[in-house]
Design goal:
The protein is an alpha+beta fold and 168 residues long. It has four helices and eight strands, in the order βααββββαβαββ. The chain starts with a strand and ends with a strand. GO terms for molecular function: acyltransferase activity, transferring groups other than amino-acyl groups.
Length: 168
């Protein structure tokens, strides 16, 4: 499987939303509280795309995953209860979701590696991200890919674990 990370377009929004709905249901089935409050939703995805921040993981012509990628644009990260590894420019990703028909193939890790490539192509050497305390799958991926736990950030009143990886 040879996958690429591409900017999403508005015509892909409904298919992306289906993938995110699958992920929302998986989080719930796992007992996680992440994404159980009406966020994310189709309007969020459309906003990502309109701001050129929505990205699809493609296997040939098929969307197999989605994430939002932002540069230096996460205001909550300024309020970290903890300490970041760096204070330079950073890439942040949100809303990582893999199509349920493609789970177990390491695509989330592949997507994160492609995000690292995106950062380096933009001469950025820091990736910051966060996840719920109960998102075991993402916490495991952070550990496997060498992300360092930096503290807590808060979204919609909920604490989330924040991580950073400094790229060479």
């Amino acid at each position: 499987m040879s996958v690429t990370l591409q900017k999403a377009n508005i015509f892909q929004a409904l298919e992306i939303w289906e993938i995110l709905q699958q992920a929302i249901l998986r989080r719930k089935a796992d007992g996680s509280k992440q994404w159980q409050d009406g966020y994310p939703n189709l309007a969020v995805i459309k906003n990502d795309i309109e701001k050129n921040q929505g990205f699809v993981l493609m296997d040939d012509e098929n969307i197999v995953g989605y994430c939002a990628i932002l540069i230096n644009n996460e205001p909550e990260y300024a309020n970290l209860k903890g300490e970041w590894l760096s204070n330079e420019d950073f890439v942040v990703f949100h809303r990582v979701a893999i199509d349920e028909g493609h789970l177990g193939k390491g695509l989330a890790k592949t997507m994160m590696t492609l995000i690292e490539d995106f950062a380096l192509e933009n001469n950025i050497h820091s990736i910051k991200a966060d996840t719920n305390f109960d998102n075991v799958a993402m916490l495991s991926i952070f550990e496997k890919l060498g992300y360092a736990y930096c503290g807590e950030v808060f979204f919609r009143g909920n604490a989330r674990k924040a991580f950073e990886k400094v790229l060479n």
